[in-house]
Amino acid sequence: MAAVIAPTQAAVPAASGLGLALLRTALAAMWISHALLKLLVFTLPGTALFFEAHGIPGGLAYIVFPLEIFGGVALLFGVYARQVALALIPILLGALAVHLPNGWVFTATGGGWEYPMFLIVASLVLWLSGDGAFALRRSEAFVPRAIR
C-alpha cells in the first residue's frame, strides 16, 4: 500500500491559486461567448426583443452586452476579478428568473435554471476565494472582512 503524502503548506496555496485562475478563465469564456452570441447570432435588437418577451426592458440588452464583454475580459486577465464576478451576478439573477419557470434541466424547452444557478455559485466562489494566479490587478474592496 502506497503512503499518502500530504501536500506541503507551500503547495496548497499554489494549487488553489491555479484552480481559481482556471475558474476565472472558465467564467470569462462563458461571459465573452454569451455576449458574442447576443451580438453575432441574435443581434442586439433581437436580444432586446427576447428580453421584452420575458418581461425585461429591451433597452437593458444594450447595457448587458458591454457588461458581459468587458466583464469577461476583466475576468480573463484578472483585473479586479473578485469584484467583477460579484458585479455580474445581477445579470445571472435575471437569467435565472427567465429560466426558472422552465424547470431544472437546461435541455427543457426554453432552458432550465441549473446553468444560471451554477454560474451564480461559481461567481460567488471566485468572489469569496480570490483572484487566483496570474491576476493583473487585485483589490480587497467589497470582500467581506472575515475572509480577507
Short structural summary:
This protein has helices spanning 11-41, 44-53, 61-77, 81-87, 89-99, 114-129. It contains 6 helices and no strands.
Cα-atom radius of gyration: 18 Å
State the share of residues found in helices, binned by percent.
Answer: 55-70%
Termini distance?
A: 40 Å
What is the total tally of β strands?
0
Task: Bin the strand percentage.
Answer: under 5%
SS-based structural class?
Answer: mainly alpha
Q: Are there runs of 5+ residues with pLDDT below 50, and where?
A: none
Shape: globular
The helix tally amounts to 6
Biggest beta sheet attributes = none
Q: Average pLDDT value?
A: 91
SSE pattern: HHHHHH
Task: Record keyword descriptors for this entry.
globular, 6 helices, mainly alpha
Q: What does this 3D model show about the protein?
A:
The protein is mostly helical. It is 62% helix and 0% strand. It contains 6 helices and no strands. It has helices at 11-41, 44-53, 61-77, 81-87, 89-99, 114-129. The model has no long low-confidence stretch (mean pLDDT 91).
Question: Topology of this protein?
Answer:
Layout: H1 11-41, H2 44-53, H3 61-77, H4 81-87, H5 89-99, H6 114-129
Helix pairs in contact: 1-3, 1-6, 3-4, 4-6, 5-6
